[in-house]
Structure formats: C-alpha cells, structure tokens
Fold this sequence. Notes:
With 656 residues, this protein is mostly helical. Among the domains are: 103 residues; 138 residues, Ankyrin repeat-containing domain (Serine Threonine Protein Phosphatase 5, Tetratricopeptide repeat, Alpha Horseshoe). Helices cover 73% and strands 0% of the residues. It has 31 helices and no strands. Helix 3 runs antiparallel to helix 4. It is globular, with a radius of gyration of 36 Å.
Amino acid sequence: xxxxxxxxxxxxxxxxxxxxxxxxxxxxxxxxxxxxxxxxxxxxxxxxxxxxxxxxxxxxxxxxxxxxxxxxxxxxxxxxxxxxxxxxxxxxxxxxxxxxxxxxxxxxxxxxxxxxxxxxxxxxxxxxxxxxxxxxxxxxxxxxxxxxxxxxxxxxxxxxxxxxxxxxxxxxxxxxxxxxxxxxxxxxxxxxxxxxxxxxxxxxxxxxxxxxxxxxxxxxxxxxxxxxxxxxxxxxxxxxxxxxxxxxxxxxxxxxxxxxxxxxxxxxxxxxxxxxxxxxxxxxxxxxxxxxxxxxxxxxxxxxxxxxxxxxxxxxxxxxxxxxxxxxxxxxxxxxxxxxxxxxxxxxxxxxxxxxxxxxxxxxxxxxxxxxxxxxxxxxxxxxxxxxxxxxxxxxxxxxxxxxxxxxxxxxxxxxxxxxxxxxxxxxxxxxxxxxxxxxxxxxxxxxxxxxxxxxxxxxxxxxxxxxxxxxxxxxxxxxxxxxxxxxxxxxxxxxxxxxxxxxxxxxxxxxxxxxxxxxxxxxxxxxxxxxxxxxxxxxxxxxxxxxxxxxxxxxxxxxxxxxxxxxxxxxxxxxxxxxxxxxxxxxxxxxxxxxxxxxxxxxxxxxxxxxxxxxxxxxxxxxxxxxxxxxxxxxxxxxxxxxxxxxxxxxxxxx
Length: 656
C-alpha cells in the first residue's frame, strides 16, 4: 500500500506541474488525479494477487484517504487562484508536492497502524489454538476468555468478514455448546455460517461450520432446523473436489437428524450415502466408515430388515475387533444392535453378545453412555440368570436407584449380598458404578467383600475411581480399602483416576500417598495413561511428583512420549518434550516417537517432533562442544601446571 501511495502521489504531482496552466484544468485535476491513483492501486493489487499465494487484504480505511487527496487537491488549486488568477507553474508544483507529501505521510501512518493490528491478529490466531488446548485440558473458562479476546483482536484487524473470524467463532460456538449453553451456542454457529456465506467460500472451514451447527441442533433436538442446515452442508461439501470424507460426515449427521424426525427410509438412504462417501474418502477400515456402517445396520433394524442388519453388524464388528477398536462407544452400539437382532432367534448367542456389551459399558464407556437406558432395560433379566427368585427384581430396583426396595429385598434374602451375577459382578461393584453410596455402606456393613475382583476383574474401588464416584471413594477409603488393589490388567485405582479425567478423584488418591509410578501389565504407568489420553494437567502434576518421564514399558519399551503419539495428542507430547522427554527413544520394535507419528500420518505431531528433534540435536551438539572446550581448557591448564612444576623442579635441582 505504501508503494501505491508513493506512485499515486507522484502521478498527481506530475499532472499538476505539466498540465495546469488554466483554472478549469486545476478544477478537474483532483478528480483525474484521484482516478489515476485508484487505477494505479488496482493495478498493483492485481500484480500482487498473481505473485502471492495468499493475496493481501485490501484496507477499506484507505478510501477516505483517497477522498482526502482529491479534496485537498481541489482546495489547493482554489486557494492558489484566490491569491492570483495567474498561477505560476512553480506555485502549482509546490502545492502538488505538499499535497502529495501529506497524503504519503497519512497513508504511511495508517498503514503502520494497520500492520500492528494484523500482527496482533496473527498472535490472536496462536492464542485461539492455545485456547483449544486449554479446553482439551478442561480449563473451559480460560479457554473461553482467550477466544473472546482473540475474536476482538481479529475483528479490529480484518473486520467482520474474514476466515479467521469464522475459525474463532466456530471454536467459541463448540465450546459454548459443550458447556450446555444452547442458545448462546446457536447464535455463534449462526454467525460463523453467515460470515462464511458472506465470504462466498466453499472451503473445508465453511463445510465444518455447517456440520458442527447441524450436530449442535441434533443434540438440542431441533430436527426441523437441523435438517435444513445438514442438507446445506451436504450440498456445499459436494461442490469441493476431493471432499468425500466431509460429504460422508455431513450425510452421517443428516441421517441421524432424519431418524430423530422419524423419517426412517430417508435416514437409511443417507446412512448408505455416508458409508459410501466415507469409504471412498477415508478407507474401508476408518472409524468413521465403520460408524456409518453401524448406523446403516441400526436403521435396517428399525425398518425390519433384520437379515441385512445381521450381515452388516457381523462384518463391522469383525473389522473393529481386527483393528482392536473394542473400547469405544461405536463398538458398544454395534453390540447392542446385534443383541437386538439375535434376541429374536438365538437366545444363547444374544446372551453372549449382551455379556460382551455389559463388560464394554462398565469398563470403557461408562454410566453417561447415550444409550445407557436402552442397555440397562435389558440387564436385570440377563444378570439374574441362574440366580435367586427375587434377583431380577433386585437388579431392577438397583438400576432404578430405589434404595429402600433394595434394602427390603436384601433384608429378606441376605445371601444376595455376596451374589455374583451372570456378568461376573457383585452388587457392591454395581453400586460403586452407579454411585449409590448408601447401598455401598449397607452392603459392606452386611459383609460384602470390597476386594472382590482383585487381580481378575474390576474391584469396587477401581470402579469408583474410574468413573469419578467421589462419595463412594470416600466411603471405601474410610473402610480402609486397599488403595493399591489391582484389576485384571494390573491397573490400580490411580490408573482409573487418570482415565476418569477427574481432578478431585486424583487428588483424593494422591493425598493418601498412593504409588504413582508402578506400571500395569501392559507396562504403562499413570504418566503413560495421561499422555495417551492427552490430559496435560495430569501429565504436569505427575512430572512435578518426580516420576520418570522416560520410563519405558517392560513389555514394549514404549515411553510416555510414544503413548502421547499413539493417542494423537500434540499438547501432551509438547509438554513431555519441554520437560526433557527423550525424542530419540526407541521401543521394542525399534520405532521412535517420530517414526510412530509418521506411521500414524499425524502431520501436526510430525512437525512438532521434527522441530524439537532438531532443537535437541543442536543443543546436544552445543553441549558437546562446550564439554570438549572445557576438557581442552582443563588439559591445557594441566599441561601448563605440569610444565611449571617441571621448571620449578629443574630450578631447585640447579640451585642444589
């Protein structure tokens, strides 16, 4: 813009000096000069756009400056004519130069302010990424404050319509939605979509803003509006070549919205389109593709296409088990749907499937599972298989959290207190899982064994720690339950606390001096778990307690940094590296964290590890050079001391 200002001002000066011999020309000149200045500016901007990957943003605040040049030129000529109707060419020249100089200084001043704002906006972008990490760590309030500040800074620099505005508003909308502020989130999503529409840019960011908005509306059960947004997302994703993955995701949310609106046939067709697009864009074995196939099967069940559902479910479950993806919500969804298919024709197979679903639910997915009510409705009959006559009614009361009914049943049949159900759990374990403190106290007072499950399954204390059930933890600790009790995989309650992500649960255990370094049977310490889950608050707290940051699992030689890479958490990896984690450490397969990141295809992780590896190598080289210089200096000093001692000896010998 400065080059534009200089050339434009010289054009004005040249024309005023050469052409103006009469007042009429002087009167017209400012408009001619302004037009020439604007044309020069447009030409230069066109050249810049062709030569730069990212064209510069035009500053609309310079338009008033251009108008000021025109008005200033007019007033200059008018003033000169008022003094004398015979205007010497020298006066015209000086007037033109003065006007040009004022314009140049003004534009330079404005551009300097603009540059400061743009630099501030770049920093705001970095702060927005930092806010994302804070939100991932659970610090939602600080994250929201940082995003609000970043948004204001970006608006001052770029105005209201810019891709960075969309990015920050979208982050803020998702954060607000996650915190349960539905109306505020909807306003922010609307703004993100509106700004993107104003930019007329069908990029991935626009598609993402529509997708996130549609997902928010689905969770808010606003199916009518959600369908409009989801259909729009599908249409926009199809406009961009090579965006099959996004088209599949958009079809996925559209299918769920259609199911919510009881449009089952349309939901089935959309889920088929989602599976097809995702398989093309992400691959047959990608989690999103398998999720879409599971949704197809779910809709098949609703439409009565049982045979098709059975085939899809078995194929998808086999694929997930082959990939060892058996601990997520999608896997549990598949099991529940397969149980529904099997229960109509093969009870034994159905019970086996339900047993597997129950184990996944309580060990990995947890009480907050979206379809928990659907699963719990089937559990009493399953758990009571082979039990006492009243056991099914007991489990119904337990899951309904009817404490008095449970007390009455147990009072009439005390043998149920130690009863092991068809899934291998006792009432105490289920009560810890469901956060039923009163029943836990009653069961233990009547002789329930709180160590049941030690080394074989999930003991009650581990269950309470895994799901952050603090009242139950307090009760069990007061009864001197073993804080180092182990599960079937060798995990301890501290591992469960890390997996829960609950700070207070972690604090309750650490305040009782539990061991924070002992690995489980996989060889993973609590630090490995925190790194794998990307929980930076626990990573930092464990490091501050002096745990070995480079501890390698006895079975696999995986370090905590390997775990962070496996989990795909850049923030956790960065925290470990800044605390001197060894980037070059190799596991039993001879794979370093960088090589592992390359195998996973995580570009952000690769960039971090490469840059930090180079930094560490440079620091190591500098340290080696300093050490070598120190040794050389010590050798010289020793040689000099030896020479002086020898010289002194010779002198003494001579004197003697």
